[in-house]
């Protein structure tokens, strides 16, 4: 499907769009404060005039100040403006659309009002839990998550007997439910794509997304988010929107997390296991358990207190690298990313990463100060 076949909502003149160049606050008088939720904004969530039920939930979650992307986007999002947003990983993009949709939501029994889509079931499940967390004092709000690999009859039964107001799902299962008539999208007021570059960049997913969009009303709020959003995909995203607010990181050097140390280890493929076990013995890490995962967990997943990421195999490209290493060092905390380099192709990808994001990934030193990658440790 070529881009001309995409829905085009008669975009307004692009000059009316608001384009915001993100900064990390360092060059304009702002202060960098490592290890805190907010790096430059002292205003609280109360300034957004959110519902009391939402503010109570925010306090319960332990959030005090909005991050930069939340400060930039939430005021516009709660007014119903379409938003396409690129911001570094781990800075709370999910909370932007969760809070904005819950703030505006007026639940009606039997009507789906919010539709959120993402590319994996794991991320869909995580987002649904965020909705449950923030809506805990909004007793009438019902949230459901739908994805493949589970019996579709169960989903159809949920929609029939306990229809949710908020649906989070993957494109394939969402489309199957909509096609069968089990999921009625005619009352959707809020449409969100998380990791939108993956959803729009993959042509098969894009077809599913487009068909789903066609089943929703033309008049709705559309929001799209990702840490990586190439210029060629921005125009495609905007075809789903009407006069959106645009928040981009035009300087890709600002996409990297400032508290994250990044190193590489050069070794033979056959030596990877031995080196990994040696490093796990030598390094200190917050988490008691170790997660071994494919790229399935490389995007969007927020796993609390992870401070070390190992790229056992080199990511296929610089986008994947950025998303993977951002599982550590989230919300301005410290972290460590170690990448194994075992051949020339690996070295090429690593060089691309360094050139694109203007960072220096150095060889892993023999000794690393624990305080450099774990919060609260003395030098």
Architecture overview:
With 379 residues, this protein is an alpha/beta fold. It has two domains: 3-253, P-loop containing nucleotide triphosphate hydrolases (Rossmann fold), CATH 3.40.50; 256-372, Rossmann fold. Helix content is 33%, strand content 15%. It contains twelve helices and twelve strands. It has an eight-stranded parallel beta sheet with strand order 1-8-2-7-6-3-5-4, sandwiched between helices. Helix 5 (152-161) links the parallel strand 4 and strand 5 (166-169). Helix 3 crosses helix 4. The longest helix has 14 residues, at 121-134. The chain is globular. Residues 1-42 have low confidence and may be disordered.
Strand order of the largest sheet: 1-8-2-7-6-3-5-4
Mean of pLDDT: 81
- The name of the CATH architecture of the largest domain is 3-Layer(aba) Sandwich
Individual helix count: 12
The string of secondary-structure elements, in order, is EHHEHEHEHEHEHHEHEEHEHEHE
- Structural class estimated from helices and strands: alpha/beta
Helix content: 25-40%
Number of strands: 12
From the spread of the alpha carbons, the general shape counts as: globular
Instruction: Assign the CATH topology of the largest domain.
Output: Rossmann fold
- In the CATH scheme, the class of the largest domain would be Alpha Beta
CA-atom Rg in angstroms: 21 Å
Note the main sheet: 8 strands, parallel
Unreliably modeled segments? 1-42
User: What is the CATH H-level superfamily of the largest domain?
Assistant: P-loop containing nucleotide triphosphate hydrolases
Number of domains: 2
* Share of residues in strands: 5-15%
Straight-line N-to-C gap: 56 Å
